[in-house]
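To the wet lab folks,

You asked to see what we're planning to order before we commit. Fair enough. Below is the target structure as tokens, and below that is the sequence we designed to fit it. If anything looks off to you, flag it before the synthesis order goes out.
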């Protein structure tokens, strides 16, 4: 089996301005090519290729390793920044209390990112909000 040239594939919302800025930063920092980026907003994106429902990609950030293991939410960011050499800082995000707070804050952002970035249509229901 041939090893993939990347160590983590990140599925991001390319229509989200905040997400695009984060990906641009990650691309600049990934000088060793460890990350692969897949835009879920691209017309050619097909969730079925990954044996996952399309809406699952839209709810929370997703990532997968070359062996097919999946990560979601803040764990994706922890994996990314560990690969980029910030493991010492990521260990702090796993401290009790801080871990839960970061997970909660990310989930709040993820649920409201369409609204926060001015892309809310009829798909943003009031119960999705804060």
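Sequence we intend to order:
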């Amino acid at each position: 089996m041939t090893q993939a040239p990347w160590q983590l594939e990140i599925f991001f919302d390319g229509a989200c301005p905040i997400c695009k800025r984060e990906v641009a930063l990650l691309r600049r920092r990934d000088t060793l090519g460890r990350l692969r980026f897949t835009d879920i907003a691209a017309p050619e994106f097909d969730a079925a290729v990954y044996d996952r429902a399309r809406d699952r990609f839209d709810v929370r950030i997703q990532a997968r390793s070359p062996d097919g293991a999946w990560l979601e939410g803040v764990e994706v960011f922890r994996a990314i920044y560990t690969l980029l050499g910030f493991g010492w800082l990521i260990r702090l995000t796993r401290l009790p209390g801080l871990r839960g707070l970061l997970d909660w804050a990310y989930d709040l952002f993820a649920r409201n990112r369409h609204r926060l970035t001015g892309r809310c249509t009829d798909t943003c229901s009031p119960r999705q909000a804060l």
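Structural context that might help your review: The chain has a mean pLDDT of 86. The chain has five helices and four strands.

Thanks,
Computational group
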